[in-house]
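Below is how a single chain appears once it has passed through the pipeline. First comes the sequence as given, then the structure the pipeline wrote out for it. We keep one example in the README because the format questions we get most often are answered faster by looking than by reading.
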Amino acid sequence: MDVVIRRAVLDDVPAIMEIYNESILSSVATFDVEPKTFEDRVEWFLSHDDKYPIYVAEMDGYVVGWASISRFRDRYAYRYTVENSIYVRDNYRGMGIGSKLMKALIDASKELGYHTIVSVISSQNVESINLHKKFGFKVVGVCKEVGYKFDQWIDVVYMQIML
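Resulting structure:
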């Protein structure tokens, strides 16, 4: 089955929300602990614009993953740095969808004139760490036990790629 990567549209919000909520409830890929509402995800979607795009991965018209570039921090000096996020439906992981989404994010970040992408990843999310390494991200730091989810302390790995 072919995977199509395209810019997300407002009609994709329910699928994006479903994929994200799946990760909230079943993994440490995100440190959110409560499922997001539709209204919350619409607000998040609308906070992204042409400078901070969102992409979806589609197979036969079905959204199986999403990825975004977001502002890294609010202060002006950070304006050339972005943070990435990639989420793939549980049953579609390991099929190369994350790689296709990552390529779209890196290409868009270069085209938009960003200097670097930072990724903040749970140390337990080995698949995501390996995906980032595959694309040239390097580990630049680890924060010990900064997250607490599922009755355990979790380290966070900071990874970065210079564009």
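DSSP finds four helices and seven strands in the chain.

See the next section for the split statistics.
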